Amino acid sequence: MSSRRTTTIAGSLVAASFSAVMILSFTASADDQGPGSSKGGKAVDEAPAGVKLTTLLPSKISVDNGTKKTAITATVKNEGTKDSGKIQLVVAGFDGLTVKSVQGCSQIPEKSLPKGSNSAFSCAIDNLAAGKSKSYAVDATYDLSKTGKICLPVQSGDGKKTYWQQGPVPFGTTNPSPNAPATPLLLGTDNKPVAPGGSELPKTGVGRDVLPLGAAGASLIAAGAAGLWWSSRRPSGQQLRG
């Protein structure tokens, strides 16, 4: 095999490795809320016979540090053996977490908000069959300078009984990331607010924002570069032997 062909193959390997790392980096940055959790939930009023209502929240969410926006999936489930009949799910925000909209649901007027809540939406459900669930996309903002909580009560259709209530349960982090593009928050964790005017880590050498590949990508590129250098040093008439 000539040195020119060896160089071409080595270069192709570097390109393939670079593409693979880019794909992995993109996949890892995708929004992943993790498995649903009923943490912080409890039964309140007795539900109709054969009906068992619960809710689920994502185990983790991510808050954009620039816009303060976040997305949450709220799920209500009927784990019983009979249909629920008319019920309603309420999605309420507290403290630094403000609910901006819930897909397919109605905003609750300020004068009718749950006690201590800053925002809430009501989701009417005509019937939830036994063993079924229904999920709602929740758009919210989170002021990371405060703590933030969310609450999911499941009530009778007329709102007179609360069969289940999850929360107010916190989302938060004990390790704020004010200089990162986004801050990951975990369900059931009290938020440690970002200190105002917190100092930014010093930037030395190549800026952190231009290193998306991480150590794995750097190693692959370095290995490919070494392969190119090695092949260019081989005598032009020498060939590899099988």
Task: Report on the architecture of this protein.
It is a single chain. The chain contains 2 helices and 13 strands; from the N terminus they run αβββββββββββββα. 19% of the residues lie in helices and 36% in strands. Helix 1 packs antiparallel against helix 2. The longest helix has 26 residues, at 3-28. The strands form 2 sheets. Strands 2, 4, 6, 8, 9, 11, 12 and 13 form an 8-stranded antiparallel beta sheet that branches. By secondary structure, it is an alpha+beta fold. The termini are close together.
How do you describe this structure in short?
Helices cover 19% and strands 36% of the residues. The protein is an alpha+beta fold.
Keywords:
242 residues, disordered C terminus, alpha+beta, single chain, 19% helix, 5-stranded antiparallel sheet, 2 helices
Terminal residue distance: 10 Å
Amount of helix: 10-25%
Mean pLDDT: 77
SSE sequence, one letter per element = HEEEEEEEEEEEEEH
SS class: alpha+beta
Work out the strand percent: 35-45%
Number of helices: 2
Sum up the overall morphology in one term.
elongated
Radius of gyration: 26 Å
Total E-strand runs? 13
Low-confidence stretches: 6-30, 197-242
Please describe the biggest sheet, giving its number of strands, its sense, and whether it closes into a barrel: 8 strands, antiparallel
